[in-house]
């Protein structure tokens, strides 16, 4: 969808534009909250309704459950001289339903963290997940490419691995066990002998492979400039043969179009195409957003992170699925013209706020007690520290109601590595494993689906809502830090 708003319409949910003169007020605020944010931006203007804040590109899906699995045994080292103990848990394939159509099959790469029933997942770069610091991440992708379900001839897989007969359940369990050994450095074995042989073969033979490209993304996700110009370019990156560019729903009123490099309006694009926002001269300061969409198979090995705190997954198989991406543009008559984006920075332990100033004056703002100035034509990035597993909500507001919100959870480490801290105690390792054994029913399911669990989880329990409530309560007690983002103006500006 393409939508546009002018300054007088008080748009929200889009990248903030800088102040000009007269009624444009030179104030912008950046609010960092520790509470979980809503899934969509709230405010006036058509751009607000379809900007989720969290999701910029690729597939978005809902977790349906752990569908094809067998059991495994996790060995948990004791602390402070305590003996090691073992925990039985299910190991296998999850399924997800893609927003807009399609199905995904995934494995867990975050053993100790429980899943949440019907959790929302978003296609995410490795650098923004626990794979960012994992030197064996490429070996996990090799395992996915050389085992079930990518290799669905189980007789051939068993012959290659020398395992003996495999079923869908044991093949899934063996694959998951091999992945856990690299994703979580876990001491885990499959309960079934053939599944364990498969896990050993995969673990022993895995080779490093590259991270797959996103199914669909727009680069950059925000641009800015002056009315009367073509703002961009925004480059399409996709494995799909073609993506649709929705026509401007309000083009007749605004006159704003999405064009190619030659200025011709476009309704479709392919990989590498460069898109522009054509904003007519004298258009009131404002914002616009475009979305592109395609139907394609999501590449095997793409990570899927939860919109809230839930177990991180990695893609093992995909049907033809709906994927989408968004980009925004802002423009102003005079002054600074910032374009704002955000991304998780796992290496730095925070979220990067990037501001590109395409105006004719510097853009100055304060963030976490430090003043930053972005000269005209320059781009700067500020990293806001966020604690591991902490939800964040950054709302950047600008003049005349401009608003851009970024929300999510910083989940950059496997829960086991976080919960091993002395303050968590020895019981911390039980998260994600304690109730998993209880979720495995006594009877088996069909040959195609394996054992059917009641709750989509490698772990998870009835205590999860209470734990979430306690966590939110602690965040409320701790409070959220408030940062001010403001544009400096001349003394002659009207307040």
From TrEMBL:
<dbReference type="Pfam" id="PF08341">
    <property type="entry name" value="TED"/>
</dbReference>
<keyword id="KW-0472">Membrane</keyword>
<feature type="region of interest" description="Disordered">
    <location>
        <begin position="419"/>
        <end position="457"/>
    </location>
</feature>
<dbReference type="Pfam" id="PF05506">
    <property type="entry name" value="PLipase_C_C"/>
</dbReference>
<feature type="domain" description="Thioester">
    <location>
        <begin position="106"/>
        <end position="206"/>
    </location>
</feature>
<dbReference type="GO" id="GO:0004629">
    <property type="term" value="F:phospholipase C activity"/>
</dbReference>
<keyword id="KW-0812">Transmembrane</keyword>
<dbReference type="InterPro" id="IPR008475">
    <property type="entry name" value="PLipase_C_C"/>
</dbReference>
<feature type="compositionally biased region" description="Polar residues">
    <location>
        <begin position="431"/>
        <end position="449"/>
    </location>
</feature>
<dbReference type="InterPro" id="IPR013552">
    <property type="entry name" value="Thioester_dom"/>
</dbReference>
<dbReference type="InterPro" id="IPR023849">
    <property type="entry name" value="TQXA_dom"/>
</dbReference>
<dbReference type="GO" id="GO:0016042">
    <property type="term" value="P:lipid catabolic process"/>
</dbReference>
<feature type="transmembrane region" description="Helical">
    <location>
        <begin position="466"/>
        <end position="485"/>
    </location>
</feature>
<feature type="domain" description="Bacterial phospholipase C C-terminal">
    <location>
        <begin position="338"/>
        <end position="408"/>
    </location>
</feature>
<protein>
    <submittedName>
        <fullName>Cys-Gln thioester bond-forming surface protein</fullName>
    </submittedName>
</protein>
<keyword id="KW-1133">Transmembrane helix</keyword>
